[in-house]
Amino acid sequence: MSDAELAAHLAEVTGRLLIEVRSSGVLSLGALGKAGDATANQFLCHALREQRPEDALLSEEEKDNLDRLLASRCWIVDPVDGTREYGEARTDWAVHVALAVNGVPTDGAVALPGQGIVLRSDQPLAVPPAPDRLRMVVSRTRPAPEAKAVAERLDAELVPMGSAGAKAMAVILGQADIYLHTGGQYEWDSCAPAAVALAHGLHVSRIDGSPLVYNQADTYMPDLLICRKAHADLVLALVAECAVTGQAKP
Predict the structure, then answer these.
(1) How far apart are CA 150 and CA 148, in angstroms?
(2) Per-residue pLDDT at 249
């Protein structure tokens, strides 16, 4: 399998495993999240080390090994993106599997098991056209002040949603038009979504317009923007304007 095929296969199989764990009916909500994370992580890490033994690996659920910084190729995975949504049997959770080469997210897949969908970098879909009124996808529990401020300036509709992967894929699927996040994430939250979004021709960057860079010593990533290229300059300008005027402060 190619790197993209491997990413898609592992994301799809992991999603099926997670559905099976949840449907077992023997775990409480709190235990379910832990069991799902552990099961998915074990499968993904063992499979990647078997299939790509020379590559580095970074997983949310594994102790970080900084030897990965010496590798040009690093797989970055989030076994369950949106553990809360997974445990609540919602559909807005995801499985992320991606490969970063020299810091660039080159191949990846995002599985949305609750929706029976796997979006992948090697099989891009046609992104639907934007509606007259734009939609901005935001956290369903804690929408970022910057996102709300920019949405107000655009007269965009706010669309609450769970995991980062689900939000990013909503833009590809035509369920939203802009994913602006400023609340802080980690590399595993966005690497696979970034790889898939880039392959679909979307704009992907930090909110200052700089590219997202992966396999760094500090895995924290403060912000990101995923949207159609036609909207990127306006959204970036509004983010900068809100920062200057202080509109984005809670």
Answers:
(1) 6
(2) 46
